[in-house]
Amino acid sequence: xxxxxxxxxxxxxxxxxxxxxxxxxxxxxxxxxxxxxxxxxxxxxxxxxxxxxxxxxxxxxxxxxxxxxxxxxxxxxxxxxxxxxxxxxxxxxxxxxxxxxxxxxxxxxxxxxxxxxxxxxxxxxxxxxxxxxxxxxxxxxxxxxxxxxxxxxxxxxxxxxxxxxxxxxxxxxxxxxxxxxxxxxxxxxxxxxxxxxxxxxxxxxxxxxxxxxxxxxxxxxxxxxxxxxxxxxxxxxxxxxxxxxxxxxxxxxxxxxxxxxxxxxxxxxxxxxxxxxxxxxxxxxxxxxxxxxxxxxxxxxxxxxxxxxxxxxxxxxxxxxxxxxxxxxxxxxxxxxxxxxxxxxxxxxxxxxxxxxxxxxxxxxxxxxxxxxxxxxxxxxxxxxxxxxxxxxxxxxxxxxxxxxxxxxxxxxxxxxxxx
Amino acid sequence: xxxxxxxxxxxxxxxxxxxxxxxxxxxxxxxxxxxxxxxxxxxxxxxxxxxxxxxxxxxxxxxxxxxxxxxxxxxxxxxxxxxxxxxxxxxxxxxxxxxxxxxxxxxxxxxxxxxxxxxxxxxxxxxxxxxxxxxxxxxxxxxxxxxxxxxxxxxxxxxxxxxxxxxxxxxxxxxxxxxxxxxxxxxxxxxxxxxxxxxxxxxxxxxxxxxxxxxxxxxxxxxxxxxxxxxxxxxxxxxxxxxxxxxxxxxxxxxxxxxx
Lengths: 420, 260
Ligand SMILES: [Zn+2]
Known about the structure:
The structure holds 2 protein chains of 2 kinds. By secondary structure, chain A is of the alpha/beta class. Helices cover 35% and strands 17% of the residues of chain A. In chain B, strands 1, 2, 3, 4, 5, 6, 7, 8, 9, 10 and 11 form an 11-stranded mixed sheet that branches. Chain B is built from 8 helices and 11 strands. The structure holds zinc ion.
């Protein structure tokens, strides 16, 4: 049963719904953020009120938070109703909208922007926080990853033992952030991108890592002793299995490609187990996740099977390289640099595109020339450089498969065009 | 320049100073050297490694406070780096690397860290942070950088750098902040040149967007050799597109702080 609300909160809900409906009528997006903003203006305490009585799980990371939230929501749904936000609506307004949308839900699985996590954790009193990775993203905003780690660390220091953190043991910035919390479940999700965690977050010394390429290799600080904690859950070294606390290895058959999604499933299953859901049942729910707001979606454009992939920062692009490098599909890359993408696209030089050389590639988007110079330097064969990502398809043999990797705003536009 | 001549390029502390794609500068240098028949040998120096004294070109990227302080300490303590600088090796630094090569620099929290002292330049925190697209014209008096075409890049720094008499500015900004000392809009200068030491606030990476600057560094590293022209696909398009952007009204709409 939803808790009863005071008049101000009821007024806020009504005003928010009206604003969201108006926003949808005006075709200004899905109305989520607008409605949520109005609700919080009328009743700033609404998040706390709506969260009361729910078993809430907040999920935050630079990469994979939408997918993992979707997996956790799927697993929780095997047990009851789940409040759940849409991808990207992950600050206060998006969170309040998700909570308001299903007041009778006993569970919540909510993705939260990294910078807003401490405030959302405090306001919701969530009993589970899932912390996965912190890597460079949107550099022009100056939200340095170390600063985010410090904010999470300060949050963890304030937590009571009612809140359990599930944290990725393979990202030193996450480990250091989570460590002060009274209750932490360590999960070896894997972290293959290490460029943002060369130094110990505690003391600044250079971390030592076994470079075995597994993503779950031990790491430690030779100066202060900060080290990869003993994990309760972990992916296997080849990232094909999930080892549970009793030593059983589950084999995921995910619809989503790539080793990072095995790591995402591992922490999702661990979170679901914390809510009393059998790991095999939770994993079966994770396996059903097919696309996340168009990411990884398969569609057809002019007779070509097309798969849409999101590559929005060096760590996420590096994972996409593994997927597109072996798929045999023609590769189209798209780069924008608007506010939501980060206005500085120099991060493309941190992506090891050299791995794909001498593969042919089509280059597009508003910052296609930046990307063209990068890919040419990497030794790829540039087949076409056009603003429109779909322009190159006309020149392909009929029916040839295409992978399109785009960053955030380019991806949103493309999805709206090609996903019916 | 002799065909097959080896150019030893020393990449300094990329794990500490490489947040903004500056590793791309090395890729560009190596590729342009190879295209001229030179043999680039890139040596990557990590924390705790000895810095070779025999390099022809030393490259230092940008980074965050913790990495910057660590890099400054390693460089100050390095006999190899000191020896190379005294021997007149070409040294190129970007952003936090520029600050590190100066006399001293201030980090968040107000602490003043000693720099390497190769540039007559002092860096203090500035408000607001300088973030955005830059277009800058290289100054005729910019010593070993004089004569280069305009520089394009992206700046993102919370420090303002004031130059002393021994250092010269590299360029004058047409758009953007640059060195950024002397008030919110800066003093209009961008970058530093002092002998064979060149430094800039520009990312992009700067050598990908400004291949003539890359060639100038290679030329200095090769003992002043003249390099044959080299066309680079798409760079002209990129520069044209960036220039049109900074000269359009879009720039202020994207909330970059000043225009001149
Ligand atoms: Zn340490």
